[in-house]
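PROTEIN–LIGAND DATA SHEET

This sheet pairs a single protein chain with one bound small molecule, NAI, given as SMILES. Inputs appear in the order they were entered. The predicted three-dimensional arrangement of chain and ligand is reported afterwards as a token string under its own label.
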Amino acid sequence: MNIGVLGAGAWGTALAIHFALHSHKVWLWTHNIQHVQQLQQQRQNQRYLPGFDLPENLAAVAELASAELIIIATPVAALRQSAQKLVDAGLSDVPIIAACKGFEQQTGLLPQQVLAEVMPKNPCIGVLSGPSFAQELAQQLPCAVTLASENFVWIQALAASLNNTVLRLYANADVIGAAVGGAVKNVMAIATGIADGLNYGINARVALMTRGMAEISRLNQALGGQAATLMGLSGMGDLILTCTGSLSRNRRVGLLLAEGKSLPEALTELGHVAEGVYTVEEVCRQAASLGVDMPVACILKQLFDGCIEVQEMAEILMERAPKTE
Ligand SMILES: NC(=O)C1=CN([C@@H]2O[C@H](COP(=O)(O)OP(=O)(O)OC[C@H]3O[C@@H](n4cnc5c(N)ncnc54)[C@H](O)[C@@H]3O)[C@@H](O)[C@H]2O)C=CC1
Ligand SMILES: O=C(CO)COP(=O)(O)O
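PREDICTION REPORTED AS:
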């Protein structure tokens, strides 16, 4: 298959390398022309995914080209403008997958909803979600993820055609559940990183993950997602990976905040996007407007708003009135 990938960060590069190694013809586009030239000359993504050679059948490009499948792997903040570039290039009908995780800021839309707004006539819009660190996929270590779309016939066929011995793809018709799980687990990973950085222990980590899942479930239900999806790869799977895996950038932000770094300092040190930082704002806005109780997400927002210190978070959460489970 001819596959086009937009976004040459860690994830776009890992996906492009993976599909090229599995006999697909791939182009990888980024908005930064100097970065395209560096990719073309050095045949490695030194800035975002060092140590992995770009296979011969992977072309780094500055101009969008035709493709049978497009994957957008930019941060959510660049999703709308990337999709608009596709429309401007006459590629608005090409089957498209969003591989980014989060709610769009200001609109509160999930990735597939942003794509549907920009390309309303495209019948094949989906998301890729689930536990998948870029470095491990680039190393071709085994990985299983969710491909979700309302167009189930298409997404099932796509999952079957992209499936291989390294990447196992599970088709799912519940695109809301898949996208909500992928978005909100990043928020919980920052909170868990803070707890771990403050040495609160494994009990606290698992309490945060479990109660975090309760928050994700409530929001998912209010937005129309299925509960069963959150028991799968794009829910529980990605929550466990991101809250516990040392490769997680969101978790790392939490660890840096616990060390006493400010949020801007933590993000500069990270050098990659940590979507949870932006998602938390939208999650709390939606929780408030839908009447959904999301105490962990909202305490994190208070921290980012400068209303509390990291050391106060646990006490505020623990002194809430007792509840039923
Ligand atoms: N890194 C990972 O392991 C995984 C990341 N994701 C998701 O993929 C998305 C991208 O993450 P990463 O690649 O890891 O980020 P990254 O921080 O490694 O790279 C971000 C990339 O986006 C590009 N970019 C920024 N603004 C842009 C714009 N306006 N137009 C086009 N490109 C722009 C940057 O130049 C850079 O190439 C995020 O939503 C993330 O949650 C999902 C699964 C795994
Ligand atoms: O989404 C991811 C893995 O599934 C990557 O998480 P981080 O952005 O926290 O590294």
